[in-house]
Each structure stands twice: as structure tokens, then as C-alpha cells.
Design brief:
Elements: E1 3-4, H1 5-11, E2 21-31, H2 37-48, E3 51-56, E4 62-69, H3 70-82, E5 88-97, E6 105-107
Parallel strand pairs: 3-6
Antiparallel strand pairs: 1-5, 2-4, 2-5, 3-4
Length: about 110
Amino acid sequence: MSASSDDVARSDEHTPADGDLVRRIVRVRGRVQGVGYRMDAAAAASRLGIAGTVRNLLDGTVEADVEGAGQAVEAMLAHLREGPPWAAVDGIDVRRAEPRGTTGFRITG
């Protein structure tokens, strides 16, 4: 079940500490394909030390699977809500997932 990013923040028992490894799977809606959104997300992930993947989905959304230190993941979610200047993000859905110990960040589709 998907929850909005606001629901995830309210349902957390606490904000993840910087050292806590967390993973979030994010679905981004809006004008996010064909505007460099995935490249921008990969650049932000590199800058923030986030591991995972980003890909276009057939329904016109973008899915990002992000993993890292709690505060870095929160910063990545904030970045995904905005995207690059030429994108128009209508909203994101965020769900929690178990961290897998992923390394590196890739554009997969």
C-alpha cells in the first residue's frame, strides 16, 4: 500500500537518525519523463551519498528506490519532490522497505 510522503513522515515513530540505514521506494507523478528527471535524481543521489535506482515506468511516472543514512534519504525525498527546473512534480508516494545494503546509484530504465 502506498502512502503519501506526508503520511510516512507522520507515521514514523521518530525521524531517522543520520546513522540509521533506511530505504524508501518512491513513485513520482507529474511531468517527469523526457525532462532529465532521472539524470537529475542520479546527480542528487551521488551528492547525498544515496544508493539505489531510478527508472521510468510505463504509466508516465518515475520510480526511485533510495537507500542510505536517514537524514540523507530525507534530503533525497525533498529533492525528488522538486525535481529539475524543467519538470513539474504533482506529488510523490513513498513506501518503506527493508534496507538491502545496496551500493551505488543507477538509472535502470
